[in-house]
Sequence to fold (498 residues):
Amino acid sequence: MNQRQRWPEGKEGTAPKAATRRGKDGDGAERHEVIYQSISDAIIEHRLKPGARLREDALADVFDISRTGIRKILQRLALEELVTLTPRRGASVTRPSADEAKDVFDARQMIECGLIPEITRRITREDIQTLRDMATQEREALRAGEQSTAIKLSAAFHGHLAHLSGNATLAAFVERLCSRSSLILAVYGNPGHLGCESHDHEDLVSYLEKGNGERAQAFMGRHLKAIEASLSIHSEEDEAPDLYTIFSR
Amino acid sequence: MNQRQRWPEGKEGTAPKAATRRGKDGDGAERHEVIYQSISDAIIEHRLKPGARLREDALADVFDISRTGIRKILQRLALEELVTLTPRRGASVTRPSADEAKDVFDARQMIECGLIPEITRRITREDIQTLRDMATQEREALRAGEQSTAIKLSAAFHGHLAHLSGNATLAAFVERLCSRSSLILAVYGNPGHLGCESHDHEDLVSYLEKGNGERAQAFMGRHLKAIEASLSIHSEEDEAPDLYTIFSR
DNA sequence: CCTCGGCAAATCGTATACAATGGGCGCTCT
DNA sequence: AGAGCGCCCATTGTATACGATTTGCCGAGG
Fold:
């Protein structure tokens, strides 16, 4: 479609863009989605660390697209608060503040626990099997030392669980909270001890299978509290020191 | 939140609104914010009805800006689900489905009620005064027959209340839910009987003032249920009739 | 040696030009 | 006359060019 000799300036010949050379002419919208997922995954998996700069030109070059498309994607990520857009400085992976971290986990506590009753009511046998598979897969990844994968699978587990409530709006919100949690873990987490304990999710599924909603709810509460407690939250007020407020007369 | 960098020249400190992020302004970004607010308000106030088309050219012309800027704003509105972006047909004001309506009100029920205890704990005398003023203002507008204003003020009331919980993340989510609620009222509401009863908010403030969190919480629950019950939700399966499902063998 | 001021490079913000797609509408054939 | 078909226009999607601003460097002066 638009895949003709771009960049007459050269510099194209020597740089083999490793990045999933999208099949040309793939319909435009699809390509955007793929790129969005790529960046989003990279952030969630901590392959892009908080604070990392995301230059538009570089991304445009890597994904073989114009800056226009990249900006669109970057904006979307910014609205989901995975990246921070500073007016004339470009985009960077969001570095959550301590306050934000607390807010996010409080929100998860409220919503994910609040969703459990409805989930218990609606869950089917197939759902339980799917969840169990996801939990297993996650533990496998954890044991194999693939932290990136484990982090993503953990978020996926929580997201999938939320969707079982039947409330798409809240589920979407939970997904976003999980993404942000991943960022929080990257900043405040202790190495070698990432958020979810390996067996937690499987235990949770067991409670759900037994139809024991109250136990499941309490367990989810403890689970989230445990993750939050495992963080070492230091204020670290280095970035954007907000000078105008600090030195305001 | 560390998004406060104010330029010393700026003085537009109308704090209570603070709808979203966007701290940095400079010069050009401010204009975008204004335009965004204009469109957003127009939608929330039902001056733009669900289904209304929003042509990029027209908007660009009205606001004296290039289509680039309009697209950016439209995308933001789309991510907040106030407008729907259809691939090659442009933007239109979102027409919420019946399912979405239910989801939104369930979500509000969970979150706004869940927030009340913390709000009760944190609320100050000034906060109560502010809330009372807002409620009064809202009733005034309602009595004056200014529905548009009343709708916006109602959403602002719920949003402001949520902010008093101290959880900016959840508060932002509540704000978005309120915006969407406004859309839902536009589609499923009965004329002459818009969502919030005129005295409801003032009653709620009274409970909060007495520090009676449980009463306040129960009242909020009833309040939201009442709004939801006042809707006449007909599925209205006209658009996108999903022929494949209907005629599936 | 330290500091201040200007210059240059880098990078984002905006506008405009171009391409492509889908719908509306008139023409023609039966 | 009705229906089918194809062209034209309206509208969006994408790319690139240009302008603005910020940053970092380097040289000059105290």
